[in-house]
Amino acid sequence: MSVGNAILLGLVQGVTEFLPVSSSGHLSILNNLFGMTTARDGHLFFDALLRLGTMIAILLVYWQDVKAMAQETLSLMNLGPLAGRPLSRRPGARLFFLIALATLPLVLMLPIKDLLNGLYGKNIFIGVALILNGCILYVADRMIPGSKGVGGMTLLDALIIGLCQCVAVIPGLSSAATAITASFATGLKRDFAVKFAFLLLVPAMFGSAVLKLADGLRAGVDWSLFPTYLIGMAAAVISGIVVIQLMTVIARRGKFGGFAYYCWVVGALSIILTMIF
């Protein structure tokens, strides 16, 4: 793997992870059509580092929220500087438990992990999934804005969003698209919907990265490429930060239609190019 390939894949990961167009689908199409990484390159290990990079981007952008969640959750156990604070003044702790609940459905996907990994090599399947992803975005663009913040969000809302996010483990479907659309459907405010959807990605990314790191280490890693991997990871962090900020603005304006058309075009091209070549 060249440094240029690593940077390109890092940018693709950082941009498409947070734009609602499926990072897994784009990375798979690039790899399958153009052979940008190979098993010998340690692509599983590199993919895990890219996921960690995008997770770091979320933590940096929402650091104040992450800090509040940690401090206020610890305060429930009378630990930390906020110990003794009334429950009504712990929105960070409430957000933490809502995210934890929404994450639980992902456990249902573990038994079919190997089956899902096998789909990454099937461009036609990924193309169909991208077209479906475009349909999800088309619907999201036409939803009436909600008014719920962290205080108005219910446990059922969190569970519904978490179940929808489960579907997005299929390559070609975007976790951001499904989680944001589900958040809109449950009546969350648009900017809070984006924040919740992205924070919800953190435990999923961490779990996915750990599993892929383990698989990658078992498959073998060319450690001479490790500096190249880190450059790609840095590209994912930087591009991720920029796109998260952009997505917040886009969500407020409710302009997802362009992404829907983009997914339809890329999905169709993926199918056509695979059939030709």
Key terms:
12 helices; globular; 277 residues; mainly alpha
Structure report:
This protein is an all-alpha fold and 277 residues long. It has one domain. It is built from twelve helices and no strands. The chain has helices spanning 3-18, 23-34, 43-61, 63-75, 91-103, 113-119, 123-140, 155-167, 175-185, 190-219, 226-253, 257-276. The chain is globular and about 55 Å long.
| Count of individual helical segments | 12
Number of individual domains = 1
The proportion of strand residues reads under 5%
**Shape call:** globular
Helical percentage: over 70%
Q: Please count the beta strands (DSSP E, at least 2 residues each).
A: 0
Mean pLDDT: 84
Query: Order of helices and strands, N to C?
Result: HHHHHHHHHHHH
Gap between N and C termini: 23 Å
Main β sheet profile:
none
Low-confidence stretches: none
Radius of gyration: 19 Å
What class, by secondary structure content? mainly alpha
Secondary-structure blueprint of this entry?
Blueprint: H1 3-18, H2 23-34, H3 43-61, H4 63-75, H5 91-103, H6 113-119, H7 123-140, H8 155-167, H9 175-185, H10 190-219, H11 226-253, H12 257-276
Helix pairs in contact: 1-2, 1-3, 1-11, 2-7, 3-10, 3-11, 4-5, 5-8, 5-10, 7-9, 7-12, 8-9, 9-10, 10-11
In short:
It contains twelve helices and no strands. It is mainly α and 277 residues long.
